[in-house]
Design brief:
By secondary structure, this protein is α+β, with helices and mostly antiparallel strands. Bound molecules: zinc ion. The site of zinc ion has 9 residues, from strand 3 and helix 2.
Length: 156
C-alpha cells in the first residue's frame, strides 16, 4: 500500500535537495531523529532508523522489526542516509541542536561530525515510526490541491 502511493505521488514532490525516493520519511520527533529508509537492494523492504537525542544512540530495523543486517556496532547505510536527509531538510544546525551533539557546533559540517560522536546501538522497536510514516502517506491520497497542508512541510 505504501509503495504504490509512494511511487505515484511523491515523485511529483521531489524537488530540492531531499532524496525522497531513498528516504521517504524523516522527522525530528520525541527526542529522536527518525525516519524510513528504502532498502538499497530490495524494493519490497524499508528500514526504520533512529538517532536518539543526547546519547546519540542509534538503531535500525526493518519495518517488520528485524534487526538491520548492516548494523554491526556502527551506523549502517540507512542511518547515514537518514542523517544526510535530515540535514538536507532541516539544516545541519537544527539537526545538531536537536540531537544535542556535544562540542563546538560551528566546527561541525556534516554527518561524519555526528557519527564521530555516536553512542551505542540501542535495540528498541521503532514500529511507531513506520505507522507515523503511513499516516503521513495518507495525506498523499488526498486530491491535488494548491493549498499547503501544514503537516506536509517536510516536502518543502
Ligand atoms: Zn540499516
Amino acid at each position: 500500500m505504501y509503495r504504490s502511493s509512494f511511487n505515484q505521488n511523491t515523485e511529483n514532490n521531489l524537488h530540492g535537495k531531499r532524496n525522497i525516493k531513498k528516504v521517504p520519511f524523516v522527522e525530528l520527533f520525541n527526542h529522536r531523529l527518525q525516519g524510513v529508509v528504502s532498502s538499497g537492494s530490495d524494493i519490497e523492504r524499508v528500514y526504520v532508523s533512529f538517532w536518539e537525542a543526547g546519547s546519540i544512540d542509534f538503531y535500525c530495523s526493518t519495518n517488520n522489526n528485524r534487526p538491520c543486517g548492516g548494523l554491526r556496532g556502527y551506523p549502517c547505510n540507512h542511518l547515514q542516509a537518514l542523517l544526510e536527509e535530515a540535514i538536507a531538510q532541516y539544516g545541519i544546525e537544527q539537526v545538531l541542536r536537536f540531537l544535542k551533539v556535544p562540542g563546538d557546533l560551528s566546527q561541525m559540517h556534516g554527518i561524519n561530525d555526528i557519527i564521530a560522536r555516536k553512542g551505542a546501538v540501542k535495540k528498541e522497536a521503532a514500529s511507531e515510526v513506520f505507522s507515523r510514516f503511513l499516516n503521513y502517506l495518507g495525506y498523499l491520497e488526498l486530491a491535488p490541491s494548491n493549498q499547503p497542508l501544514p503537516e506536509m512541510s517536510w516536502f518543502v
